[in-house]
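Bug: token stream looks shifted between consecutive jobs. Job 1:
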Amino acid sequence: MFSLRNNRIFKKIFRLLFVGITFTTIIFAFVGISLQKEAIIELLHSEAKSLAQSITFVSSNALITDDNSYLVEFNNEYIKNNDKIKNVIIAKTDSSYFNIKKDSWTFDKSINEEFSFMQQDEEVYKIIYSPILKEEVFHYTYPIYFSGISWGWIHLSFDLSEYNQKIDSMYKQFFFLLMGFMLLSYVISYYIAKVFADPIIDLNERVSSITLDNLNVKVEDIRDDEIGELSMAFNKMTKHLDESQKKLKLSNENLEKRVQQRTSQLEKAYKDLRGKSYELEELNINLDNKVKQEIDKRRKQEQMLLHQSRLAAMGEMVGNIAHQWRQPLNALSIIIQNIDLSYRMNKLSDEFMKKSVDESLDLTTMMSKTIDDFRNFFIPNKKKEEFYLSKSLNSSLELIGSTFKNYNIVVHKNIEEGLKAEGFPNEFAQALLNVLSNAKDALIEKQIQKPEVYVSLEKKDNVGKISISDNAGGIDKEVLPKVFDPYFTTKEQGKGTGIGLYMSKMIIEQNMSGKIYAKNVESGVEFVIEMPLETVEKIEA
């Protein structure tokens, strides 16, 4: 065994096998550790996602109604009952943050940059150092969406004690396993090296006296076995080797030149390939960054448009409320004047007073109902539901009816009842109100003497077709294709935002699978809305 250990060929074979087996074992150990870590992280991710969805579901009404006290109380109680959760942050889109821990909570107008970077359109999770808890945690960020609208994010910070215990245990297991494999590889390498080195060592001892320059040296001891046959072949080889040496030298020189030439060509091709690969990599990075920037820009633009649309619609509703209240306020004013006049003339009787009070209460009740109708109109639907097209259309006409009467606009209706569609009825009614308001503004702006609006609803095949037209003279052919573009308006500066029809198109086509378009007719412009109807079998079911 000692002679083998001092033999160079044995050492090379042994080192090669031992290093190869050990290196392979380490690679497998590294891959195994990585996969185990990913599996543990994925378990934390799955648990965090489930908890975030539960919190989002329970807190949905509180987020919509801005019930901040409920948000704090519920989440504070929730993390007290869950040992793994150490911190919850409710981040709203209006840059308000509720930082809730097991023993306290705070309200902030800003958040740590590490957390804000994780507020994206999809869930994000990783192990970070929490500046709030002053320790490393598994942090999970979950986006909150209701009715396709972003309401903010939920941040969950999990304790890493159990995770660290699992990692430590895994490292110990892999360490002992690695030690066992290294011992086994030592034994296997020694055995294989010995098997391959023995015959080579034996032959090396017989020809060790032969030098590279003395080709006349022969092996004198010829054995009667395979080694002997190899020795005889070696003697014959050395006899002819000297004769062919000169030819071989010349051939080697030519071959060397060809190898150098080919090597130069391969190096040049390799450099060209590396250059192309670098250019392609740079192109992919730039393209990925541009796509991300455009997506983020589009998301911010849509959020801004939605906010502006709601503000514009609320402004329009305030005008409608004013028109709706004008008549009852005038009636209240007359009742008060009659009471004052009767009092001055000493004719104020109990019967007259009771009648006046009853009439006043009826008027205030009607005004209160108006407020409720307008308030309910702006409550967004949480999920799609079946609704009657005629109900949404009549609701929009009723909301804008007082404004139409104020400007002497006559409405002609031809509405077919019983047509059902699936979607968001409040958003659909708001889209109809945008189209009706657009017709009203056109009639007022052009000062039509006898302003009229024509509204119809009919079934065509399996589609509910709503037509809204006016007699304001139509829109220029060059302008007509642009009426649904964002920020495009035909009104005077300061009198239109250019987002009402754009938002109507988004609500009908993207959210409800419908279709809206505009065309010029004889009297003016006609907006057509086509909604797919629910089948009879589905309605009955």
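Job 2, same session, no restart:
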Amino acid sequence: MGVTNSIVIPHAFSAEYKGETWTADGVLSFTSNALSLVVFTPVSRLFTLTLDAERQVNLKTSVAGPRIPPEYLLMDIQLMYAPIDKLNQQLGAPYRVTSEGLERHIHFGNDLIVRIRYSTTNPFTSDISFSNLLRNYRYALIPHGNAAVSTTPSSPKGD
């Protein structure tokens, strides 16, 4: 039996996309083989977005919410939280991910296409400002308290 770490981050989430602005609360959760984002208002759940170990995307919407394509959200979450060396390895040329102080930059060739600003050096406890300069949209994520990290036993199959 192995061990699975999970990180759960409750946060306030706001976005601007194609002239539409919205604000909601959310819970972002990471495990070794899945990523999940649930975004909700006091009245209802807007959507649940998951990426599983087989890289299958599942989007469930409850009410009209943001029109941001789910593949954008998933990539953006990875750009915000994944280690820079892993991102550079996965993206490959002509993409390049760099870091300068509390900012992360994603370049396509010589062009800056994404700017991410963190309030602290730990992205899991940081306020995050994400701007996609190429597609002209942005997010702000503000954690409610600290991220919860838990360790749970996993089955030999990794379930």
